[in-house]
From TrEMBL:
Annotated organism of origin: Fulvivirga kasyanovii
Protein name as catalogued: Dienelactone hydrolase family protein
InterPro entries referenced in this protein's UniProt entry, alphabetically: AB_hydrolase_fold (IPR029058), Dienelactn_hydro (IPR002925), Dienelactone_hydrolase-like (IPR051049)
Pfam annotation, one family: DLH
Signal sequence, renumbered to the chain: 1-19
Amino acid sequence: MKTFTLFIALLFSVNLLIAQSDITICHTPATESFAMFASNQKFNSEHPVPEPYVHRSKIGKMIKIKTSDGKTANAYLLESQVDSDDYLFVIHEWWGLNGHIKKMAEKYYSDLGTVNVLALDLYDGKVAETREKASEYMSQVDDKRARAIIQGAIDYAGNSSEIATIGWCFGGGWALQAAMMAGSEAQGAVIYYGMPEKDVEKIKEKVNFPVLGIFAREDEWITPEIVENFQKDMEEAQKELNVHFYEASHAFANPSNPDYDKEATEDAYQKSMAFLKRVLD
């Protein structure tokens, strides 16, 4: 009888551990879920090294911003030519804040008009020139430090600002997180094939702005299933989400990608521009 009782107790303990393990997996933060891809060789191999490019600009400049952890961070700033409280936060891919991201930031700046554009550096000055370094830098991102940098950018923009965010890949997930952190200043977020928020309770509480999702049907990482779950969670939370799928692969909007899809990229850009103009109007 004692043996049977011990067996039942042991079985209960094992089931409890399994249940707790399942709960942990379900609530792994979205940004950490994406960072786990850094150790996947296939994920790394599908990110060709970008062509060397140094961005030179007469209007953009690197600045230092104070962060909420008492330190400073780097950011690339393009100031509106007229007085404006509108801000677009741009968040880089896993390569870091390189010339290609600065170029995209300036393109959005030019096409949006009276908007301040701030491209954030979540790598604290590190820029990867190889897949190995990109994998290393992405896996080393500390969640608290990244959020301190984002909070510093929010503080820099000011309490009266209206903030929209955009990011690609690694930066896509962080673009959503940044908007969630911005509170009443948040006006919208654009996610390019980044990891969406997976905690429906956080969505209910923190996503008080429209979201535009740009995804690829052939993406093996941010899969259609992940996106569909996000759509269900957003619908359950009664939040605005517009999703556009393209018959393309992950990182299809990066010109250095062999699977770069020019037509899809141009269409996605026009959709993101229309969205940003609407939310920052």
